[in-house]
Amino acid sequence: EDKVVQSPLSLVVHEGDTVTLNCSYEVTNFRSLLWYKQEKKAPTFLFMLTSSGIEKKSGRLSSILDKKELFSILNITATQTGDSAVYLCAVPDRGSTLGRLYFGRGTQLTVWP
Amino acid sequence: GAGVSQTPSNKVTEKGKYVELRCDPISGHTALYWYRQSLGQGPEFLIYFQGTGAADDSGLPNDRFFAVRPEGSVSTLKIQRTERGDSAVYLCASSPGGGAMAGELFFGEGSRLTVL
What is the pLDDT of residues B86-95, one digit of tens each? Predict the structure, then answer.
């Protein structure tokens, strides 16, 4: 009964490659979806998505949401070794902006030089 | 401090012992969260405070787990009669508690608990 499912669980690429990470979700009263990057211990916030079809972009990272099909993708272009991390997707419980977040298991991205 | 501070960073204890994990959130953040992360898993929600009160403690796995935030700032997660299955990284996060970036959590580096 996972509410957030991420794929792939693990991905190994070479520097310069482009990657697409997937996140599908199932939650009542959807309000937002969040992406986090976890390099060692502390996840750090990347994006919050609330509207379908509107791409959020930060440097080489971009993300988009499809509320009809209940999924989001995170794209990383021209990958660098510093992009190696676990990428986590999360949705708030019952549409609340506060409170519990349901996280997926994450995608472990490894970028080789 | 500038970020969320958690102590200790590592804790090794024996089965049956009592442990306390401390979290000092970002100054002014009213919302504070505890999550637990096991190897290869995403963070799992434990409890959420809004101010001094626990707004949602439904993620606490059993009555051996308890958390407090008496003055609305620092929080302590308390685990009684520890079991080997409690071994995990315990993450604390805080957020401003509302506004445009509601949902963005600021995480600490975590406390790695190992129960032998």
Answer: 999 999 999 8
